[in-house]
């Protein structure tokens, strides 16, 4: 039921400001209006941010409107509006050139009151509250840190670096679609010197406000050329020291920025006291590495390359500083004309001692054994024994993994993620350095079915995306709406000339998702042991995240006819001939009391559908729904469990397909055993302490989570 919105009463002080705020208010109401479709809400959100990006002076008006709406939410208990307003407000503040101190304080006080709301609202509010406080004390800090991390700008004070990897499933992305999406995502970004000028411009404008003349400063920075690097390092140092000092150093920070501003204008022969209007400083999109995910090892290789490249870069930077010190010493020695030969020999010895001084960053493109890669990563992180070890800055790297596809690509991700965790359980090298964040943009090559029963159908390959959209309406509006838009990109680009500018909508939405979607939804991974007829040794170990389908070849036609009858709402009263194969199953029944009750039974079925995604988001993600298809209504059984073993009793076999992906299909299967996938780290801890079969926990294992989840970032997340 739609709630009536309060009419806008514009202030009478400033007519221009009133008109802008009225326009912003109407835009916000259009986004919050429940009657608007999800796709339109996402487009309206993007349009609103583009308005502020084009006209930075409008950001203050938009912040005022958003704060008023949040205060209204607090009074009237409109919780469904909290998430969109919080994310929109935070994103505007990051992009804003300058916000008055009194408005910052009003935002902060509003956030303090929102902390009384339940999860997940209070968690998101607290995270943004800390960011707002830092931006209030050190204006421009959020923008500067964001650009430095996303663009890997070299500096000595803020070591955070991020890398965005987009993996597209070739089963969904044809050649033309892949080229179209790649053209939109991998845009020709600005050069490092341009980024440095942009950071300087934004930080000085945010810190000085009207005391800074944006257009004159822009021209002065361009005239400086390569000399801009010196001022960039000074501003980074000033901002980081201001963050460390807190409120006590606020006045000192502003004075320092004023000196830097005057020095820049003086060096460029401009008036050092110039003040006036502010210039536009749009937040650049992060550098995106786009891959057509044909090889599952590619994810691991890219993470290793990322770690190696950064580690080698840090080492080279350290050696470069040492060389600069040696050169300065050499110059001082040359000036008194003594010890020249000894000094040259010392320099040669130092270069031999530091073999990485002129080395290239290693990169894995060919085949290399995982243990060899791990050894090389460990060597590069720790450094050779004869050289100076790197400072142990753990967790400074963030790899943002974006999956594009349907349930199949998340199934492949689940397998790759489990493999990475298994390697890390033994060595724990990448985990120390890289913070892994996973995102999902649903894209399918099938028609999208908007049906409440679509999640239970084998043909619907967007069950995970549908679930995320139900638990997070803001994800539904901004991300799920891309599922129907992205497949049209290939046709759109073919109708337009190549000379036209690339479409920034997709990369803008992805950037928004990467920066604001930090609340994970944890999907339980399930381990399945597959026993194949005629195969000796241990069963095949696999994992799946959403779906397992067991089909009996002899009854494939019977099962297809049964599906057609269900889709046409026809009921078969009589059964003719065999109803299916006879299978036995043992499973643990899920009960409200959480007590495990082992059940055993035999059923006749022509197919089994096992789903880890419930149609109802309130039922959670910690159990499986197992449905046995049969032409006999009495044999159509559905159970809920976490552990199940299915074995065929006749001299037959069946086929198993994981996560609706024909690339992960197993034939001639005799039995399957399914259980929640244990975290390899937990398994290693328990196996190292006790013998197999002993159930006690000791050491670190009692503090670890037993089950391995797959975290997918959204805007809201799920409260556990």
TrEMBL record:
An annotated GO cellular component: phosphatidylinositol 3-kinase complex, class IB
An annotated GO BP: G protein-coupled receptor signaling pathway
A Pfam match: PI3K_1B_p101
Molecular function in Gene Ontology: 1-phosphatidylinositol-3-kinase regulator activity
UniProt biased composition (Basic and acidic residues): 344-353
InterPro entries xref list: PIK3R5/6
Stretch list, region Disordered: 344-365
Protein name, as recorded: Phosphoinositide 3-kinase regulatory subunit 6
Species annotation: Oncorhynchus tshawytscha
UniProt lineage: Eukaryota, Metazoa, Chordata, Craniata, Vertebrata
The gene coding this protein: LOC112247001
């Amino acid at each position: 039921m739609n709630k009536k919105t309060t009419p806008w009463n514009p202030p009478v002080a400033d007519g221009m400001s009133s008109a802008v705020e009225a326009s912003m208010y109407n835009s916000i109401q259009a986004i919050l209006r429940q009657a608007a479709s999800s796709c339109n809400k996402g487009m309206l959100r993007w349009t609103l941010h583009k308005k502020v990006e084009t006209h930075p002076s409008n950001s203050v008006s938009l912040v005022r409107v958003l704060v008023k709406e949040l205060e209204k939410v607090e009074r009237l208990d409109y919780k469904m509006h909290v998430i969109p307003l919080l994310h929109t407000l935070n994103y505007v503040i990051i992009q804003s050139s300058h916000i008055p101190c009194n408005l910052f304080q009003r935002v902060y006080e509003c956030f303090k009151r929102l902390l009384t709301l339940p999860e997940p609202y209070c968690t998101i509010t607290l995270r943004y509250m800390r960011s707002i406080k830092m931006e209030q004390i050190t204006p421009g800090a959020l923008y500067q840190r964001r650009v430095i991390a996303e663009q890997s700008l070299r500096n000595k004070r803020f070591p955070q670096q991020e890398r965005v990897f987009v993996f597209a499933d070739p089963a969904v992305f044809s050649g033309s679609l892949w080229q179209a999406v790649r053209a939109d995502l991998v845009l020709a970004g600005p050069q490092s010197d341009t980024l440095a000028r942009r950071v300087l411009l934004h930080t000085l404008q945010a810190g000085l406000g009207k005391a800074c003349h944006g257009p004159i400063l822009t021209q002065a920075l361009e005239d400086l050329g390569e000399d801009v690097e010196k001022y960039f390092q000074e501003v980074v140092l000033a901002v980081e020291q201001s963050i460390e000092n807190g409120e006590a150093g606020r006045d000192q920070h502003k004075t320092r920025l004023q000196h830097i501003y005057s020095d820049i204008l003086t060096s460029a022969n401009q008036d050092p006291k110039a003040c006036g209007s502010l210039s536009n400083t749009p937040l650049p999109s992060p550098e995106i590495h786009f891959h057509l995910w044909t090889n599952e090892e590619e994810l691991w290789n890219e993470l290793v390359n990322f770690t190696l490249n950064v580690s080698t870069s840090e080492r080279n930077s350290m050696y470069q500083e040492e060389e600069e010190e040696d050169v300065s010493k050499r110059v001082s020695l040359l000036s008194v004309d003594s010890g020249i030969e000894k000094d040259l020999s010392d320099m040669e010895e130092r270069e031999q001692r530091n073999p990485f001084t002129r080395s290239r960053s290693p990169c894995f493109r060919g085949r290399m054994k995982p243990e060899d890669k791990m050894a090389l990563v460990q060597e590069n992180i720790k450094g050779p024994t004869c050289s100076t070890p790197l400072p142990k800055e753990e967790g400074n790297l963030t790899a943002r993994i974006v999956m594009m596809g349907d349930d199949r690509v998340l199934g492949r991700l689940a397998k790759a993620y489990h493999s990475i965790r298994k390697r890390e359980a033994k060595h724990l090298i990448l985990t120390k350095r890289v913070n892994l964040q996973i995102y999902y943009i649903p894209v399918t090559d099938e028609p999208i079915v908007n049906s409440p029963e679509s999640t239970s159908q084998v043909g619907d390959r967007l069950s995970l995306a549908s679930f995320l959209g139900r638990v997070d309406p803001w994800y539904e509006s901004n991300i799920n709406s891309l599922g129907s838009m992205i497949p049209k990109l290939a046709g759109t680009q073919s109708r337009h000339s190549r000379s036209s500018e690339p479409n920034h909508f997709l990369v803008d939405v992805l950037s928004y998702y990467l920066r604001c979607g930090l609340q994970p939804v944890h999907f339980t991974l399930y381990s399945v042991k597959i026993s194949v007829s005629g195969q000796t040794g241990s069963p095949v170990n696999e994992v799946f995240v959403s779906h397992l389908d067991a089909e009996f070849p002899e009854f494939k036609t019977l099962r297809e006819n049964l599906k057609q009858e269900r889709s046409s709402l026809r009921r078969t009263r009589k059964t003719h001939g065999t109803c299916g194969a006879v299978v036995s199953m043992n499973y643990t029944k899920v009960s409200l009391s959480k007590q495990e009750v082992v059940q055993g039974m035999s059923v006749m079925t022509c197919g089994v559908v096992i789903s880890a995604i419930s149609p109802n988001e309130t039922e959670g993600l910690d159990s499986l729904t197992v449905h046995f298809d049969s032409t006999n209504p009495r044999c159509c059984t559905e159970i809920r469990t976490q552990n199940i073993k299915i074995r065929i009793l006749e001299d037959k076999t069946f086929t198993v397909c994981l996560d609706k992906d024909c690339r992960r299909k197993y034939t001639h299967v005799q039995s399957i055993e399914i259980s929640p996938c244990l975290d390899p780290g937990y398994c290693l801890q328990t196996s190292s302490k006790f013998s197999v079969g002993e159930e006690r926990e000791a050491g670190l294992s009692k503090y670890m989570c037993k089950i391995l989840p797959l975290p997918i970032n959204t805007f809201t997340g799920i409260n556990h």
